[in-house]
Specification:
79% helix; 178 residues; elongated; 9 helices
Length: 178
Amino acid sequence: MTATDQELVDRIARGDSEALGQLMAKYSPALMRFATHFLRSAADADEVLQDVFLRAERAIRKGTRPERMEAWLFRIAVNRCRSKRRRWWPFVSGREAEYAIAATAASDAESGPEWLAEINAALAALSPVLREAFLLKHVEGLEYQEMSLSTGASIPALKMRVARACQELRQQLAEVKR
């Protein structure tokens, strides 16, 4: 954990709500992006994000001092997303999911809305386990060690999941380009 994160944790433990706000500002974008892609719903992702920081604040005030703040927050987020998906996944419409993912995905001028929709559809077609690993590695840029801390999966298992996700995405997107 960086010195800045440690300082924020110490301040949060003393009840400083401004420090919690700073922690949220630092980590919310990546956590929101992950949750939106994983759950395929911006509204559900926002709910998860709020829950992540409530749980983090409670844990810090009870004495938890995470070694790696980002990995710890992602672990909470992954667990909350898994729980939410089990309860709500069937009720998320395809159109809502497409808009939620498109809203958080970075697009450049060359990639039109059709290509972005194909990428989102390919991501959505991945199994939740593969999607989770792919998003943590290639969208959020976590190292395998951090991913392991976040998900509870072994590093070899995560490497295999990322490789399979990449392979499936390549196959799906190659078919689209034909």
